[in-house]
Amino acid sequence: MPIIFLSADHADAEHMITALDAGGDEYLHKPISRRILSARVRNLVRLASADRERQLILQVAQFEKLAAVGQLAAGVAHEVNNPLSFVLSNLESPRGDVGDLVRVVKAYRVSAEGGGALDRTLDLDAMIEDLQLLIDETVHGGSRVRAIVQELKTFSRQPDARWC
Description:
- Helices cover 79% and strands 5% of the residues.
- It is built from 5 helices and 2 strands, in the order βαβαααα.
- The chain has a two-stranded parallel ribbon with strand order 1-2.
- Helix 3 (94-110) runs antiparallel to helix 4 (112-122).
- The model has no long low-confidence stretch (mean pLDDT 84).
């Protein structure tokens, strides 16, 4: 709401400064015509409306930024979650195989025949092949996560002309 001070005192500049410093938008001296008063009020209302509109535009822009950040975060979470799930799944699978490999190594240490028998029973060659494949796929998934993070770092360092 615009504030207009009306005064009958023409010569007192200190009162005018005090009134404007206190938050007044206009300081008018009596006598004043209705047309001048009406024009000054219209101008102050127009300025106040323009200021409210500017503040509203800034708020909308801020909400749009927050919405964009939310969408970006959801997209990043999805992009990172897929290879991460793949990595975790690939690490879960060989967990039991490692125990079997340890058993075979211990059996070989006791005797070559016992180790060889357990090796054939557990089909160690197939287990090693699967293990190597799982490691390769896990490294690939980890590399995807690293690439996503690197792209995010690069993106975050580039100024966006729309928000500057």
